[in-house]
Amino acid sequence: MAQSESKHPTPVSILIDAVLVIGFFIYMYGVLKSHVPSSDPKMIMLWAALTSACLSGTFWLSIQMFRVVYRAQREARK
Known about the structure:
By secondary structure, this protein is mainly alpha-helical. The chain has one domain. The chain has helices at 11-33, 41-77. The longest helix is centred in the C-terminal third of the chain and has 37 residues, at 41-77. The protein starts with 10 loop residues before the first helix and ends with a helix.
């Protein structure tokens, strides 16, 4: 069975992923601040940031899965 050549991420794709994930984190932080059931600003900041971090990690995984599936579909068409 022939091994396909391994394509490593380029610096541009890493930068694009980082910008997308950071933008998603900032967006979710803004949305989640109003949903934290507390009146203490430090607790609001803490829990909104922790929840945004978890969601951003999931978003990063979904970006990576999208890239893998897209690359596989593109190679299957060839």
